[in-house]
Amino acid sequence: MPELPEVETVRRGLAPAMEGVVIKAADIRREGLRWPFPDNMAARLRGARGERLRRRSKYILADLDRGETLLIHLGMSGRMQVSGDPLGQFHHDHPAALKHDHVVLDMANGARITFNDARRFGAMDLIDTATLAQHPLIAVLGPEPLGNAFDGTYLVERFKGKKTPVKSALLDQGIVAGLGNIYVCEVLFRAGILPKKHAGQIAAPAVAALVPIIRDVLSEAIDAGGSSLKDYKQVNGKLGYFQHSFAVYGRETCPCVTRGCDGVIVRINQSGRSSFFCPQCQR
DNA sequence: ATGGGGGCCTGCCGGC
DNA sequence: TGCCGGCAGGCCCCCA
Question: Which nucleotide is nearest to A34 (CA to C1')?
Fold first, then answer.
């Protein structure tokens, strides 16, 4: 579910509740999610102060002052909510606990941070901050799509000779980190490339042209607070609204938005995921 | 080697 | 109204 723009929106919303704030109490309500939680997670969080809140790909990384980093992944249905009164000036009841509230952090500034995840594909872990880059989950990641290391030369090199469909190549977190099903569909529409086209068959200039398109789509989605379909909300409960800007995702049978195009959006299945595209605009 | 499919979970929606 | 199949934004693992 949450792709880079959603995770970045959550990170931004979470920052005021965590950065420079001590975790007063951690309530861990189950053994784990996708993987078991680390040993003594509640005790290792209690009393720690949040420092910088970072994002790498779809991971939120909360550096703590004890040399550990809290890693958070939202999986498909994970949601972070911030409630309570961060200034501590008023009495402010927290909303009732919901089904699937798995981890609750009570912060010294009165904020309560709740991790809710119906499908439990999400994850939380505590990792040594100094060796974070070598952690197996992080070490395999390709460059950040909004960072300087991601450029046309790099992508052309990575696509060279690849027989895999461009859809799968862009979903490969080792090539570029943070894209998911929605944004790959939108990117390929803007690029005019069919999702089934082999990555290595695309001419170099067209591959290089994917870079600014990827940046634009992700930046626009971040500006819109992400895309809300079912589960995803911002930490304040508000919906993102980039879903109103989708050209193809979820728009099967709808007319193509391109001026003068009489195409209709179709859906196909590619290795278990839906791909949406306009057969007229995308070649 | 890589790509495709299954599995992990729960919830929701549409069709019968 | 109720049950059942299909589908969902991610990612790991196994098999060909």
Answer: B8
